[in-house]
Structure formats: C-alpha cells, structure tokens
Design a protein that fits this description.
- The chain has one domain: 434 Repressor (Amino-terminal Domain).
- The longest helix has 17 residues.
- The radius of gyration is 15 Å and the shape is globular.
- The protein is mainly α.
C-alpha cells in the first residue's frame, strides 16, 4: 500500500482525523521549513554548523514538529530560519 492510500484510509477514522487536524500547524511549519532548506540547497549538517550546533540537533528539530516528543522554542525556529535567510510570521485566526 502506498503512503497516499494509507493516509486516505487512516483519515476515514474519526480519531485519526481529529489528531491529524490537531497537528496541522506543526505539519505546515515543518513543510515550510523543509521547503526553505531545500530552496537554500543546505543540508542539515550545514544548517547545524551555521547555527553553532550539531547535526543531530537539526534532525531532532525537524522531526520534533511531527513527533510531538519535543516542542522547539520560537527562538530555535527563528535561528534555523535566519540561516536560510527567512523569517517567521505568526497569524492568529479566530474560530
């Protein structure tokens, strides 16, 4: 079964869909961070060097946004994005 098929099937379950929707901001942030890194043509190791940290820290940062095991600080995310010549914008939307 391919990933898209598995995702479609899983999202039919209300409990999975609810959790997926809850994590949407993290998924969106991660997609944008990875897109910026790819556009800059930098590896995780290069980002780490420019941030003054080690490559595993960048791996943890990128994976933490979808694992829920660690919530990176805004300062860390901003530092990561500064290396990519990007900035973070936050918008609050009322339901």
């Amino acid at each position: 079964m391919k990933h898209k098929e598995l995702k479609r099937k899983a999202l039919k379950r209300s409990s999975v869909k609810k959790e997926y929707d809850r994590l949407e901001p993290e998924f969106t942030l991660l997609r944008e961070m990875l897109r910026a890194r790819n556009k800059a043509g930098l590896t995780q190791a290069q980002i780490a060097e420019r941030m003054g940290t080690k490559p595993p820290s960048i791996t943890r940062l990128e994976s933490s946004l979808t694992s829920g095991k660690h919530s990176p600080s805004l300062a860390t995310i901003k530092k990561y994005l500064e290396v990519l010549n990007c900035r973070l914008e936050i918008k609050i939307i009322h339901n």
